[in-house]
Amino acid sequence: MAATMHNFANAAELARNLADKVAASLSTAIAKKGTAEIAVSGGSTPKAFFQELSTRDLDWTKVTITLVDERFVPADNPRSNHLLVISNLLQNKAKAAKFQPLYQPAATVEEAARLSTVATASIGNPFDVVILGMGGDGHTASFFPGGSNLAVALDPKTPRGIITMDAEGAGEPRLTFTFSSLQDAGLLVLHIEGDGKKDVLAKAEGAGDEAEMPIRAVLRRAATPVDIYWAP
Ligand SMILES: O=C(O)[C@H](O)[C@@H](O)[C@H](O)[C@H](O)COP(=O)(O)O
């Protein structure tokens, strides 16, 4: 599926434009079905975008925000994506939105994935908006090269839901939505910044296995054409 590049002069201009685009998509979904659901990524890139989006004027009471993936840590842990979203997106006007965490206080990450699949079953079928990031190794969500459940995560036949992922580059055990849960979003965005990530994208767009650079699964076979937002 062909991707569309949106290049911006700097991160602040990207954040403003992406916030406008996402706010419009959420508002359209609310007008059409009364609700809107968005799954966002963690990491360092999305912070300015989150802060911009939090100020946009829409009926946030009708919006459910969740995560594309999460580290298996509670929300008071500095590594938590939940904490990142609460601190930067669930602020200002967006404070009125509902947040659905992926982390569950369970004895094992496998049990947490089972509980989180149940807890998220009523949203994202499909998501109205999914915002993906990408690591320097070509991972997205928690689809890491060499990941313990990578084949299951990328398999289009894997049911929607949350699965676990262990990988060298992942740090803690991860909870992640599957490819099947994310790939048909109304608006499917890959948000990357910096020349290094642009080089990684160029490599991912070339020949090679999806297992080597899992972002390739999204670029090559997502049902929704990918909008790539990039700034230096
Ligand atoms: O939990 C996470 O870390 C994210 O969901 C992950 O997929 C992230 O999008 C990439 O690792 C890019 O992270 P940076 O934005 O920090 O480069």
UniProtKB/TrEMBL annotation:
GO terms for molecular function: 6-phosphogluconolactonase activity. It comes from the Bacteria. Residues 10-221 form the Glucosamine/galactosamine-6-phosphate isomerase domain. Keywords: Hydrolase. Pathway: Carbohydrate degradation; pentose phosphate pathway; D-ribulose 5-phosphate from D-glucose 6-phosphate (oxidative stage): step 2/3. The keyword Cell wall biogenesis/degradation does not apply. Its EC number is 3.1.1.31. It is an enzyme of class 3 (hydrolase). It catalyses: 6-phospho-D-glucono-1,5-lactone + H2O = 6-phospho-D-gluconate + H(+). One of its GO terms (biological process) is pentose-phosphate shunt. PANTHER family: 6-PHOSPHOGLUCONOLACTONASE (PTHR11054). Hydrolysis of 6-phosphogluconolactone to 6-phosphogluconate. Belongs to the glucosamine/galactosamine-6-phosphate isomerase family. 6-phosphogluconolactonase subfamily. This is 6-phosphogluconolactonase.
